[in-house]
Sequence to fold (642 residues):
Amino acid sequence: MSITESFKISITALLSNKLRSFLTMLGIIIGVAAVIALVSLGQGSQQAVEARMTALGTNLITVNAPRQARLTDKDVESIFSRVEGLAYESPMVNQQVTAKARNLTYDTTLTGVGSQYPEIRDYTVQGGRFFDDEDVSQRRKVAVLGNTVFKELFNSQGGIGETVNLKGQTFTVIGICGSKGSNAGTDSDDAIFIPYSTAQRLAGSRYITNILFKAESADVATSSADHITRILEEKLRSTSRLSSQQRSNPFRVFSQDELLSTMSEVTGTFTAMLAGIAGISLLVGGIGIMNIMLVSVTERTREIGIRKAVGAKRSDILSQFLVEALVMSGIGGMLGVLTGVGTARVLAKMSNLTAAVSPAAVIVAFAFSAMIGISFGIYPASRASRLDPIVALRYE
Amino acid sequence: MISVQRLSKKYQMGEENIVHALRGIDLEIGSGEYVAIMGPSGSGKSTFMNIVGCLDRPSEGTYMLAGEDTSRMSDNELSTIRNKRIGFIFQTFNLLPRLDALLNVELPLVYRGMSSRERRKQAMECLERVGLADRVRHRPTELSGGQQQRVAIARAMAGSPVLVLADEPTGNLDSRSGEEIMGIFRDLNDAGITLAVVTHDENIARHAKRIVRFRDGVVVSDEKVVSRATVPSASGNSAAEEASRS
Fold:
């Protein structure tokens, strides 16, 4: 018997019991749709995270040091001059402040940085200027406002030359940054930048705990980061003020590149987990097919007997029922792909998630559903094919 | 055509209860014969028919069909024999309820891998022979018992078999439909097809040329029918009869 004949027979059988066929397919539809929707959303967020990280600059190197390491701006300069491949440097001192200007107050992050900070983080200055090395060395009370702060305190009007009160000190606004937008959930424009030296004085500390470097390219970032680590460890050996825990892991030096791959790994694992959970529902759908096929074989015992009596071979009966399971899982799989892609799109539109429907996920989910059709259809089909024609014909 | 020697069939029923359905049957049925097989229930006549029809295998003995020993054949070879050499007619018709008359008749041809056009042509011819050319698109449930059995006969004929076996073909029919069926059987036999009909109705048996009687798994008598029952030939007038009745 030809395969087209098997298809005709199975489609007739499925159409004769439409509701049951549809409900059985529904298991596969939901399974495939869940796999595709969840994987799409997972991969979408993975891509979104990667895009944001790349926007931060893949050649960014961040150093976190404990206060006990007593790093000063001299150390920053010595690292910058000794390590190859570094383009810019900036210490960073962060604190939370309530800024007051005109009659308004606004809670924001006060970021003490060096003069090269805009180059490192790709800030533009839309009005006035960023502070220079002299402002830093003189510990001048000058401030550059992030775009959000400018909006909140000055209603996006004027600002330059006016004063802003930070921690009881009066700062002169010398520049306004262009809007950079939000990044990984944080608003990059919600900050006030002042010279790090001034910030140190405000915080009452001479030491630097955070340093940013920008490597000349992403390629050298990792090796530069390694070199920085070695220098810091060398310096650490000459000081002995660290606790044993700090000694074992005193610095965190990471390039954005490493961070990127770590994040990708995390979101990748997350996506795989989602796919796994969705895969379970696909499995349950497969068991549904097997269940209904077993019922169908029992119900059609007499039919099998008749077919065998008129000359159907074991392989004919096997292929008839196997094709029936395959048609069900195949159509279910196709509908599932459509539902899954649609669901992913709708979910992405309704939330701030991004959906990336990868053809690979669609193919894998569809192939998996077909495989489920075969593996869960083969047992009922082989049971049908082994029926003794006489016993089957007598079955009521 | 059929040559059966020392044929026996045992069934294992439970632990130590062996049922001997057939106990050493020797029987020859020649080409073109029309044999009625009779006997009370439990005499082994249906078991015999199943073995002759290659639906079952004997426990012992040999069964030669047209010179071929079937006892050594594989399941697939037996399927092919059923498909090409044998036509089966059952008491309960055994049509597939979801398929219309035409598709039911096509069924044996499907398993021969015949193209659908050829199948249709051959099945139509068979349905015309049993006087159902106007009912080809009806499903079994839309047909009377007699019509269903005629569809079943057409199906048995579709594969142009050399041997047609019928197991109580008129058992579920009124006498008038039964007569019609016997008329068709006579036409088939006249056309050279070997027929074996299992029945317990003496009137039906008298249509055959030879009656073989079974009892307790053995043949107890085997005789020629002296005065055969006569029925009008089915071809030609049955459609007219059908019309006049309705």
Notes: Chain B touches chain A through 26 residues (CB under 8 Å).
